[in-house]
Amino acid sequence: MFTGGKYDEKEIERFSVDDGSHFSITGEILPSLGATRSFHRNSVGRFVISPFDPHYRTWEAFLVLLVYYTAWVSPFEFGFLVRPSGLLTITDNIVNAIFFVDIVLTFFVAYLDKTSYLIIDSKKEIATRYVTTWFLLDLISTIPSEFVRVILPNNLQSYGYVSMLRLWRLRRVSRFFARLEKDKNYSYFWTRCAKLVSVTLFVIHMAACIFYRLAAHYFNPTETWIGSVWEDFKTESLYSQYIKSLYWSITTMATVGYGDLHAVNHYLFYSLVDRVYLFRGVSNDLLFQLVSEMKAEYFPPKEDVILQNEAPTDMYFLVSGVVVVGEARTGDVVGEIGVLCYRPQLFTVRTKRLSQLLRLNRTAFLNLIQANVGDGTIIMNNVLQHLKENNDPIMQEILLETEHMLAQGRMDLPLTLCFAATRGDDLLLHHILKRGSDPNEADNGARTAMHIAASSGNDHCVALLLEYGGDPNKKDSEGNVPLWDAMLGKHESVIKLLVENGATLSSGDTGQFAFTAVEQNDLDLLNKIVSYGGDVTRQTSSGTTALHAAISEGNIDIVKFLLDQGADIDLPDSNGWTARALADHQGHDEIKTLFQNRKEVIKRPIPTISQASKLGGGSSSSTVIGKKRIAKYGSEPMIAPYDPSTDYSPRGVMPSVPERTWTDDSSRRRRVNTFRNSLFGIMSAANTGKSTIETN
């Protein structure tokens, strides 16, 4: 137990300065008016510890060393540990016990009253002062982490949160250095250097622990600062994790500006930009690049974002708030017409309330488009479609002017044949063809302008493409040919034009064509497929046949037609099911009887193209399928592979039929090909004269 005793007045003066501010020249506490040094008592009461007792000062210095331990271990446990560790837990509890002893001692340590300049040794006053100041925080910082984990619910049982409360003890270090700075026995310069080094090491260590915790608890750790380099960083040793985090923290703190910090998350504004009409249908690559180029800015209410007739340098995407331009809301874009058409801004844009906007510079945008030329065509088409749907007279005037310039070829834009065919603009298509474009140029789905024009029924565009050497039998990535697209849309004039120029169905996926006709229960369409050179008995890319689909649909007329065309009832599909076994399994008695009575198969001859052209003018009852291409799948859910030893009659045991889930969005965003005849370039070519930018 520390004992009270006498103390000299020099200690009182130094202690008084310690309690004052070391930044103020008036920090020393003066005695009250009329008081003299002779009024000081030279001893404290019994069982009261003098704050100047050398043993107590040694105890305080020992506690400072323990504070250094706390300053290291508390952030470390917070950042790197999930649960208590054996030796570390024991050490923590020992340190907590020592600080708890100090809490008890503090109730018996006299203090210097700053108003009377007297040492107060009354136990009641000492206890009152301590309880009303730092007692509660000191007590909380000594609570064991294990005890807190027991009383808290599961979602709050984090090992590191409680240990961070112990950083309250750092005030002892600050007070310790303040006393040393005023002690003539120690060099002021080296004391300040030691304090600077201590603070620097603590900040670096603290940052390393926080950086690692953020990375380790992120929902996708592979997209964090450490996971992007070491994907399996969580499996490495604790020592390796700490050294890497410490290195990252040091290099970041020692680098100008943001240091090594850089964005690795593309999804902050990705969902917002993905909904903007301007980028509907572009590739993911371009969206990621655009998001990284956008700068988030905040505008107060009634702030002008864009002024009418100012230079079109930026476009803005509204994240939150409301902007008056008409009225724009979250996900809308403003200023894009001026940027893309390179004309003075049409309207003044002003905020109604505090708004966050993403600013995209025109130069950065055009540089990205030059690297993604195919996406430039999509963006321009989206702009024209937006202008067409807008009823504003100014927008309609811009649309007419832009379309006129496009038709005359006066704008050096990244326009392709597919772009012209999609818009049904035969004048623009003719202009692009005259410039030497390949009439068989394809988009990302291997669809040519011939496919697009045929599916929309534009016979003028089809005729132009045929005139310039377009291939009427070109197959896209789904096996479709232009003739089939025209048949699906029931465009008889286009069908006749294609057939007269040598178009057939034989180069396409005729098995899939027949399968589609069976799904629609359209016997007339099946007849046309045969008339135009299609083999309705072929298997589809998934291994099934039209006969399997007809049996699943229970259409006896189509089954008879397919048998007349030579369909093999014993040809297995990809799961081993033959048409005969499938009919037995599904209990179609009429179809089973038809199979049993069929002795031999006589395949009807396929009419020639000239004969087929005569049939082309007939009407069809097939359902019109829109321009959007969809994958074709069987209407019958996937069934188990065929087993010849199993009785599949209605009286037998029916095999389980698992559900099949089809998704057609996996290929929605494929990187658009760079067309050799197009480049987005600079939109101001119409105003600045002709400028040619060539790319390899």
UniProtKB/TrEMBL annotation:
Subcellular location, principal: membrane
Domain of life of the native organism: Eukaryota
Domain Cyclic nucleotide-binding residue range list: 278-369
GO terms for MF: voltage-gated potassium channel activity
Record key words, sorted: ANK repeat, Ion channel, Ion transport, Membrane, Potassium, Potassium channel, Potassium transport, Transmembrane, Transmembrane helix, Transport, Voltage-gated channel
Membrane topology value: Multi-pass membrane protein
ANK repeat residue intervals: 445-477, 478-510, 542-574
Transmembrane regions listed in the UniProt entry: 61-82, 94-112, 189-214
Positions of the UniProt region annotated as Disordered: 643-665
Record's subcellular location: Membrane
GO cellular component: monoatomic ion channel complex
Pfam family, one: Ion_trans
Family: Belongs to the potassium channel family. Plant (TC 1.A.1.4) subfamily.
Role, per record: Potassium channel.
Quaternary assembly: The potassium channel is composed of a homo- or heterotetrameric complex of pore-forming subunits.
Domain remark text: The segment S4 is probably the voltage-sensor and is characterized by a series of positively charged amino acids. The pore-forming region H5 is enclosed by the transmembrane segments S5 and S6 in the Shaker-type (1P/6TM) and contains the GYGD signature motif which seems to be involved in potassium selectivity.
Protein name (record): Potassium channel
Source organism (scientific name): Linum tenue
